[in-house]
Automatic annotation (TrEMBL):
<dbReference type="InterPro" id="IPR036291">
    <property type="entry name" value="NAD(P)-bd_dom_sf"/>
</dbReference>
<keyword id="KW-0560">Oxidoreductase</keyword>
<comment type="similarity">
    <text>Belongs to the short-chain dehydrogenases/reductases (SDR) family.</text>
</comment>
<protein>
    <submittedName>
        <fullName>SDR family NAD(P)-dependent oxidoreductase</fullName>
    </submittedName>
</protein>
<dbReference type="InterPro" id="IPR002347">
    <property type="entry name" value="SDR_fam"/>
</dbReference>
<dbReference type="InterPro" id="IPR020904">
    <property type="entry name" value="Sc_DH/Rdtase_CS"/>
</dbReference>
<dbReference type="Pfam" id="PF00106">
    <property type="entry name" value="adh_short"/>
</dbReference>
């Protein structure tokens, strides 16, 4: 039985990963996000899917280093050992040319996607001590591989995740911790609604005339990555909807 900690489990890819791993029966789930009520709803779904799945949820804002340290340090004793960390919490805010960018949006993206990922990793790695199957999965993006118009700061944060993924693989090699980046293209989740500050119509338009990926598509890849034998690690994986060639070239029906 492996214990998996998923950040940003209250929605989208994180939620889908929790459901996928719960169904597989050989994982215990430590789930966190800011919206604790969403995590409670998710726990109910998990219990319906697999009543035997052990789940522990807790509120965590990954941007607050002190909160990350104390919350993880105060977990119940039976939840203080972690085998798998899925660094999934992240967001985009705004899609504007750099000269029109909102500084608050920039700070939220940098603080969450880069600093939050670092804080969680720093405090979870010691919790992996002694694990025979230690593994960190970082959610990067096509935005970490290329830059698209007005994506400036979001792309910069995901390029940072790309660099940190490579850096972690080097630094954690001697500890035997596997490190994998999964870099999706367009996945329909709450992502665009958050990017456009709650504008549902604008968010919906992002996926108009195409079939995007969904959270389950990514969760199945996470499951595949975690099911490789001990001597095999998938370093870096780029996954797109079939209609998306790269960050900007997308084949829409109309
Ligand atoms: P969602 O908006 O559906 O989910 C984002 C999750 O991150 C939520 O659970 C949210 O929880 C959590 N989160 C955001 N800020 C914080 C914070 N400060 N502290 C803790 N948790 C936080 O989007 P996705 O599922 O699509 O995104 C998941 C990851 O995948 C992100 O890193 C994103 O950049 C990446 N990604 C997404 C793609 C897409 O097209 N959707 C493509 C490529 C990568 P809460 O609000 O409750 O705190
Ligand atoms: C999210 C997908 O295309 O907005 O990382 O960069 S995209």
């Amino acid at each position: 039985m492996r214990t998996v900690l998923i950040t940003g489990a209250s929605s989208g890819i994180g939620e889908a990963c929790a459901l996928q791993l719960a169904e597989e029966q050989n994982f215990r789930l430590l789930l966190c996000a800011r919206r604790i009520e969403k995590l409670e709803e998710l726990t109910n779904k998990i219990k319906t899917l697999n009543p035997n799945c052990e789940v522990h949820t807790f509120k965590l804002d990954v941007r607050n280093a002190e909160e990350v340290e104390t919350t993880l340090g105060n977990l119940p004793a039976e939840w203080r050992k972690v085998d798998v960390l899925i660094n999934n919490a992240g967001l985009s805010q705004g899609l504007d040319p750099i000269q029109d960018g909102d500084i608050g949006d920039w700070d939220r993206m940098i603080d969450t996607n880069v600093k939050g990922l670092l804080y969680v990793t720093k405090y979870v790695v010691p919790m992996m001590e002694g694990s025979e199957q230690a593994h960190i999965i970082n959610l990067g993006s096509i935005a970490g591989k290329e830059v698209y118009p007005n994506g400036n700061v979001y792309c910069a944060t995901k390029h940072a995740v790309d660099a940190l993924n490579k850096a972690m693989r080097i630094d954690l090699l001697s500890k035997g911790i596997k490190v994998t980046a999964i870099n999706p293209g367009m996945v329909e989740t709450e992502f665009s609604e958050v990017r456009f500050h709650g504008d549902k119509e604008r968010a919906k338009a992002v996926y108009h005339g195409l079939t995007p990926l969904n959270g389950q598509d990514i969760a199945e890849i996470v499951s595949f990555v975690l099911s490789r034998p001990k001597h095999v690690n998938i370093n870096d994986l780029l996954v797109m909807p079939t209609v998306q060639a790269n960050g900007t070239i997308i084949n829409r029906n109309n």
